[in-house]
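User: structure tokens for DUF4398 domain-containing protein, please.
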Amino acid sequence: MATPFAYSTLRHAAVVLACAALSACSYVLLPPNVQHVAPTSSSLAEAERKLADAIAERSAIEAEFAASEQVCYKKFFVNSCLEKAKEKRREALAVVRSIEVEAELYQRRAKADARDRALAESQKEFEADAAQRAANPRPERVEEPAPEPKPIAAQTNRAADNAAKLKRIAEKEQAEAGQRAQNAANFEKKRLESERREAQRRKRQAEREADNN
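Assistant: Done. Predicted tokens:
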């Protein structure tokens, strides 16, 4: 004789088969003490689709629970009805959550595998490049010779030319200074002579005026 739990399990299996055959159930309730095991994803696209479907499924579960609450409030045994509705909601959300956990885990593993492959490829390229550089080393850089210093004779000639140029400039300035001094002396001499003649002219004029008086 089958136990109540065995009967419940068989009924759950029948519901699962019926939903799978008819594709009419958005989620399947679990019997007590039975944990839902989500099927393993086979690709990132499938995992992403599962997560998107889970969002819609949660909305449907919450909508059904809200409708059940309204129905329970019209019944005589309100609390019992609400408890059953809440339990149904809890079990349905547990199924959805198990699907989400599996899809998220698949995504993390797939991304980690892709990262590991990228690192391995980068390491492989680095090793190949190092091997190529070792097989074909770059030629050593040839240092260009430093410019040779100019001959000492050329430097001596340049210094002599500069000294001669400075000497000519000094002589010119000295000659011009002597000329300026001579010009100043001539000007002073002419000024004194002009003043002397002016004094004589005034003296003669004063004597003529004295004789006329």
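User: Anything notable?

Assistant: Residues 142 and 212 are 113 Å apart (CA to CA).
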